[in-house]
Amino acid sequence: MSFFRRKRGSARKPLEFRQIAPNMVTSGNLLCGVFSLMLTTQGMFVPAAWLVFFAVIFDGMDGKVARMLGGGSQFGLEFDSLADLVSFGVAPSILIFQTSLRGFGGLLGAAAACFFALCTALRLARFNVVHVPGPFQGLPAPAGGLFVSSFVLAGADLPAGAMAAVLALTGFLMISSIPYANLKRLTKRSADRRKCLALSSLLVLSFAFLRNAAPLFLFFAYVLSGLLHFDWGRWLLRPEARDEEPRSHEAR
């Protein structure tokens, strides 16, 4: 009896705020994905696409909060992957299915959407067991989800076959070993200010002239950069910082 009392007593040990806070931020990521799914079922496609973009804000914040408070944990890593699967895998695939692929080729449209979600899950699972320093190996899951969702924001009216091909290719890029730029090495000391200013100007001009089509343009450029083996992260570093040994980075 004393053994069970001690076990129950230890289970009641309260978690510290530094352990809870990162998971609260991750919850925001997950809730954005679930809310996006709900809006998609109601035919509110553009707000649903924007929620995928809001999810990436929480996805970027949870790691920073964990490092700042020293509250990172294996539970947080697994929870983050589950949230990413919903927000950047399931939500975008259902969104594209509902807007472009319903009724396409019998079950072909559904198969393309399922393939994208499956590749997202595989990409996230691979990250949890394989940590490679330097560039990302394969298109990161958030970038893949944002890329396909940006077609809805841009109002791009692609034929169903073309949209299915986009989903399939994006899914393949996520599970591939094609290197993609990792910007997490950039700091105030390591970044080339002139190049960062030029890139920031491009972002501002893109939204000023392209408006809702700007995300599609920017993420298409990122997707294409991997195929061309152009490393944005390395390009933005100062020359002396490029020769430093890269460390393993968190990425999905």
Automatic annotation (TrEMBL):
Record has Ubl conjugation as a keyword: no
E.C. code: 2.7.8.8
Record bears the keyword Glycoprotein: no
Record localization: Endomembrane system
Keywords, ordered alphabetically: Lipid biosynthesis, Lipid metabolism, Membrane, Phospholipid biosynthesis, Phospholipid metabolism, Transferase, Transmembrane, Transmembrane helix
GO CC annotation: endomembrane system; membrane
Stated name of the protein: CDP-diacylglycerol--serine O-phosphatidyltransferase
Native organism: Fretibacterium fastidiosum
